[in-house]
Amino acid sequence: MRDWLSHRVVSSPDDTALIRAEDGEAWTYTDLDRLVSETAGRLVAHGIEADDRLGVLTPPYVGTVGLVHAAMRIGATFVPLGQELTERELAERVERADLDAVVCAEPTEDAALGAVEGCAAESEPPVLSVDDPIAESVTAVHAVEPESIDPPAWETSDYLCILFTSGTTGDPKPVPLTAGNVYSSAVASAFRLGVHHEDRWLVSLSLHHMGGLAPVYRSALYGTTLVLREGFDPGGTADDIDTYDVTGISLVPTMLQRMLDRRGTLSDTLRVVLLGGAPAPNELLERCHDYSVPVFPTYGMTESASQIVTATPRQTRDRLGTVGRPIFGTDVTIVDEEGTPVDPGESGEIVVEGPTVTPGYIDGTDEVGEGGHRTAALDRSAFGPHGLHTGDVGRVDDEGFLYVLNRLDDRIVTGGENIEPGEVVDVFREFPAVEDAAVVGLDDDVWGERVSALLVVEGDQARDSVTSAAGATAAHGDESDDGADAGGSDAGETGDRDDDGEEIESESTDEAGSDENEPGENEPDENEPSEDDVSPPVDEERLVSFARDRLAGFKIPKTVAYVDEFPRTVSGTVDREAVREILRERGHDPRSDADLKTAGFEPAEPTEPGESGGSDELNEATDAVEAAEATEPTEAAEATVSDEPSTAERPSTDQTGSNESGEGEPTDGERGAEETGGDVDAGGATDGTDAGGTPDDTDADETEGGPDGT
């Protein structure tokens, strides 16, 4: 098979291939094919040939879409690079992908030059620009006349593109996707989402993520129309759906939430909102159901060319939290720590196998295969008997629906007990006034790790908690033992990245809630609220009681803080290290009965059979509690103990390798293991933007009664 556009132009020469959202200019498939032929011919004149790897660092221009198809027409591998990356990060990718050339534009020329100059390779790849170059070392693509091309035939095993995992839990890895991977993904997505001849798919995600790139390939295969935005804007993107009669769009939950907040609902032309990149809050899904927004929650990865499982609107009505069943041809297996499949309903690592899954990660020098074709040495250490180990934790119910909980290396080990953060998150999302939750483990000298939660509260409550104390006359009684701010009085402000379309990056810009005055410093103004005056934005007594009714005591967070929005990575996923930093700086214990340091009592030594009572240390601690509290001291002590793993059952060395004194406890940074999977579409994984896909003809069984869930 030749490049897909050369086949499509024969079948649908006059159909609309591409619309630029900013001004409505349109290109037919004949127009697009002419642009691609000219671009490919000029690249060949610059020395680009089959099997080369073409790095592309350009904004989401129409010309970038042309470069995607031009690389395929030449027989070269397309390697998109992210604009938001630093020169050091770009240099690492240029080197690891072993690029033969880098194409840039005027806005990205400096970054491209810095990247190639920062490579440790003996020879730097040439830099070409689609615009008029500024630097003398950069050559304009249009500086030469195009040469004629005899389009090569593509085999299913040929590398169509190379993308990078997001690197949120390890170094970014080059992921080669073959023509067979992308083609199989397009076919399977068509069976699940459906495809109509008049479909128009709006791309507002960056083209260096699979969520933005997949629709470019799929529209040529389907013969549908691509609507291209050069950047994400909540109101503008929502308006484009209405203006251009858009029927499908790929979004991450944060983007969809902002669009609904800005416009209330979305145009009824939509058939599919493919929602991935992070877990979708139940409140958001219910809002979409109420306003007939056709949301298809999905879970996928860069390594699987986008979708792995996808749920229809009808399926999510009675199964909030599911991301659906596997797409056609894909097998999903849940395995335990030994790699053995578990029973339905049990949690374990998600393992994926099928024709959409990458052959491996590029690792080491290239090899020359049969026929002189260039092939890369592949790292397949993440693969096992059942396929690719994703590094994500999930469960499959009796009906085959997948629920994604969290990353495997997000698992918290406290007192020898394993806790899946996703389970705790699900509970807190059900609590009124809490919009979302992120649960992580913090180092703890007693229990190894302490369950901690950063909560996003409704509306302005996080900010209001700062100012509500101004007129307070009594101190809040549920403060933490170390005097940490109770209630997140310095809720993090966030910012949005607009330079790359889909990138919704928010960073906490606040410092710790309040520092204690050093001896000799001026006393604070008596009219100024102290941190004791700051009230939490939620009723924490009810919050803890709500959690205790639904979770074992040792799963209840011992540290909480409140924010308006989560800090996020450039791909839209929650930045878990930034979450930990916020919790360290201003987290506090929400339990009113928590009177001792860290996560609970100092662990008692297990008693011998027949011995009565506990250790002297525990008795002394209980006496201290009884002396300190005049009301219901026994109940308070029992409640505190009930929130920790049993000391008699807790091993002297937990699974993290720390001993009871906390010696040898790794830091939070050391605890993060190298990722085995990659960029996840939905369900808490790393590449949040791989929610790509343009709908196709619907298989009656696959669509469960139609994309609108009716």
TrEMBL record:
Residues 496-534, 696-710 have a biased composition (Acidic residues). PROSITE patterns: AMP_BINDING. GO terms for molecular function: medium-chain fatty acid-CoA ligase activity. InterPro entries: AMP-bd_C_sf (IPR045851), AMP-binding_CS (IPR020845), AMP-dep_synth/lig_dom (IPR000873), ANL_N_sf (IPR042099). Pfam families: AMP-binding. The keyword Signal does not apply. GO terms for biological process: fatty acid metabolic process. Residues 621-640, 682-695 have a biased composition (Low complexity). The keyword Transmembrane helix does not apply. Coiled coil: none annotated. Residues 337-361, 462-542, 568-710 are annotated as: Disordered. Keywords: Ligase. Residues 643-661 have a biased composition (Polar residues). Belongs to the ATP-dependent AMP-binding enzyme family. This is 2-succinylbenzoate-CoA ligase. It comes from Halorubrum persicum.
